[in-house]
Input
Amino acid sequence: MAYKFNITRGSAILNFSEEFCQSRCQLIESESFAKVIEKYIKDIRRRDTTIYNYLHKVQNDDVDLLSDLRSIFKLLLVMSVKELCLIRKEMKPYFEDKDMFIELVEDIYLFWRRLQRYAVVFNETTRGAGYQNVQFADAQNEFEELVLEVYRSIQSALGKKDKVLRQITAGVNAGLTVTHMRPFLPYEYRNLDEIPFIESVVIHPPFIAYSKRNKRDGVFPEVKTNPIEDKKFDADSWFCYPAKVGDLLCFVYFNVKFMAQGVTLCNLFDLADEEEYRNRKPDLIYVFGYEDGKDNQAFFQDESNDMLVALLSANDEFDYFGYMKKMILTLHNVQKINHRQLPIHGAMVQMTLHNGETKNIVVMGDSGAGKSETIEQIKVHGAAYITDLKTIYDDMGVLSLDEHGKVKTSGTEIGAFVRLDDLDAGYSFKELDRSVFMNPDQVNARIVIPITAYKDVVAKHDVDMFLYANNYDENGDSLDFFDTPESALEVFRAGNRMAKGTTTEYGLVGSYFANPFGPVQRREQTEPILQDYFKRMFKQGVKVGQLRTRLGIKGNEHTGPQKAAIDILKYLTGEDELKALPDED
Output
């Protein structure tokens, strides 16, 4: 990154390796501060605000206005308004309405805070006037204190004294340590060689990100030509997040214009250490936000290098974290299908009962089928029977075979990408203060939160129950089991659900094996694998059935998952009626 500071698509990127302010005066005089004020002036001019009209009466040239404001703010750090007007009489008109100037200061501060703010430091030799200390988190805290100090000093000089001080996040929302490392890539991908790799991420909660869209649409098509080969990349505009997607390695290259989508990855996929990728070719490559003026969103199987690669254009229609997450999982799933493993769109929990038994339950279904809601109701109603309930994966897993041919399951993500509506219904995770919030004021608002240790995600777990989350069928028991693989496959293969608006679909819809992220694109290749695994599960005594969550039926949004959870608990415990925990003394 050759630049010190950049504002793009509502994000501010501060290169601490090139510029790190350590005093109030340095901050006001910095290039970064000048760019913020410049952007602010353009914004209020575009909106033709009352503040702009007031300032325009004093100074009608925006360049001179920027220079004047920087000078005023610098002087207000050391003197009062009265003193400033005595020594700089030409500035006196700015304070004819002091309340309006106070409002200006507040408005600039709010403009800064509305930006999504990121600090970057290169973990290399010291250069320029930057900050290369290993205590990167401390640097961010120092910057936060400096911004607050400048803001409050100017407030005080204007005669505004707050009785209530709020220690909000005024510095950066997140920080990245990055390094220039030549990756172990095939020759065809040499155009990616100079893009820096992310080594660590620091997030300052609450981290709230806004995107142009809040839903994902359609499936990702497969193409016959490599979408990345021969593309040109400016290393100053890209970062690479080396993600561990299950047991596969994915290099996710994202445009700095989509920083929120890239940084949020740290809550969903474990960040690989350098020794895990320095001399290893990745299994998957994803380029997110390539500026080609198009709407490309496709993946390609590079057979010669045994890799799956994908590219998504820089387009407002794709500005949503679902396009980041689901393409990565599509690449993962296709690679797993290539190795005769079966991708599962669903959730898996490991339940330990008071009698010492451990049960592993996989609940499969497309978005909005009721998987997460049912799991939460198991926690609520099973407290008297369960000593521990661990979520192994929340959205995407895989079935594989051990050396004896026994069906095992593992996950892909350490986190969950969950609708806030589900949380309102009681779907609670631990430590919500670690969450990234996505468009929290909109329909289909989401949080991304880490929930499972990576070692538990990639471990090979037995499967005791394999259930289809049926959210559309009003008739029948909440829990019933199939007698044959053929009868089970009729339901699982159809992949039906009542869409709840989590994508652009509505009403009763279906997708092959309820998984539009790989199996749909590779149906012919998946079908024999699907039949083989279902036959093995029946032969090995896995209870294969369907769970009628009824989540898509009006009036059953809460009672449906509750009844489904209770029936699972009754089946596992052999109890006709569930008992509650005794009240605490």
Summary: The chain has three domains: 5-172, 176-338, 342-414+452-573. The radius of gyration is 27 Å. Residues 5-172 form one domain.
